[in-house]
Amino acid sequence: MKFIPACFSRPACCWLSAALAVMVVMCACSSSQYDEIIEEPEGKYPFDIGYKGRVDFEGDTLRVLILGNSFSSDATTYLHELALAIGLDTKRFCVYNGVISGGGINDWKKTLDNNAERSYYRMAGAVAMNVSGSLHDILNQPWDVCVLLQSSDASFRWSSFDNLPRLIEGIKSSCPNTQLKLAYMMPWTHTKKSTAKEWAGNISCARKIAMEYGIRVIPVGTAIQNARKQGLDNGMYLTRDEWHMCNGVGKFIAACTMYEGLLSSFAGKSILENPDVHTLTPEEAGSRGAMAVDSSNERICKQCAFWAVEKPFSTTIGQ
């Protein structure tokens, strides 16, 4: 009888074959995920010239509905105080945020199709809207702007937006306001571990949404990327958990971008004219990764937001 080393015995060979098969599948999945990312150089497209991530609105009352997730919650946490600081009459506007944890375009499409109920929160303003019942019922009101959001782990893959045209159609058919404006909140990448391909894909998909559907892109992700390039850091890439924005600077930049993109036209004043400097609450100050907004960074936070809206598809300040 020939001696067969244990490492080449039948059970071991089977185990090794299975392990290799898993590795091959994993590599294939990883490859396919990144193969479909559209890699395009920033600032090289004629479409980018003159395009701004600002929703123009001149009406007397502004009603905004966000179909989002926890990222849009982060981006609107300080929005009310920014509106108060600029003197905006809260009785003339509202911003409601619908939340599906980790949700995105496909989840909101299913919500609309299935008449499902979700949680909605008024994040800014004082105008009361009905946010109980199905999404169809909620949309059946005179909203002026509806903001869409993709989950951050899919926002760099164009195939994840397959249901976008059907969601847009459903929103428009449900809302009685024929002048309803649509916007897309571009999310941020998570940490330094996020690849350059992911960021390029994030930009590319946002640009394509603007080009193909005429949707206004509110570039929160670009503002955060601007800040990171300027050296603003809490040790976790401005996050509190490698996903969500940290209390203080992270949420403040996101809210400044939402103000500039959603409210500045309505208010008649840009974020650079807004005097607000968020003060951390005791609870926020004790949270992981908290980074105070102060005289050393307040201006740069607002510049990162302002220039992101001025140039949504490139990371730049003052150019």
Describe the structure.
Helix content is 40%, strand content 10%. It is of the alpha/beta class. Strand 5, helix 7 and strand 6 form a beta-alpha-beta unit. The protein is globular. The N and C termini lie far apart (79 Å). The N terminus is likely disordered.
List the SSEs and their pairings:
Elements: H1 10-35, E1 62-68, H2 70-76, H3 79-85, E2 93-99, H4 105-113, E3 119-125, H5 135-139, E4 145-148, H6 164-174, E5 181-185, H7 196-213, E6 216-218, H8 220-229, H9 249-267, H10 282-285, H11 298-310
Helix pairs in contact: 4-6, 8-9, 8-11, 9-11
User: What is the number of helices?
Assistant: 11
| Tally of DSSP β-strands | 6
Strand content: 5-15%
Radius of gyration: 22 Å
Q: How would you characterize the largest beta sheet?
A: 6 strands, mixed
Query: Into which percent range does the helicity of residues fall?
Result: 40-55%
Distance between the termini: 79 Å
SSE order, one letter for each helix or strand: HEHHEHEHEHEHEHHHH
Provide the spatial order of strands within the biggest beta sheet.
3-2-1-4-5-6
Instruction: Decide which structural class fits the backbone.
Output: alpha/beta
Shape: globular
Characteristic key phrases:
319 residues; 6-stranded mixed sheet; alpha/beta; 11 helices
Q: Summed up, what is this model?
A:
This protein is α/β, with parallel strands linked by helices and about 325 residues long. It contains eleven helices and six strands.
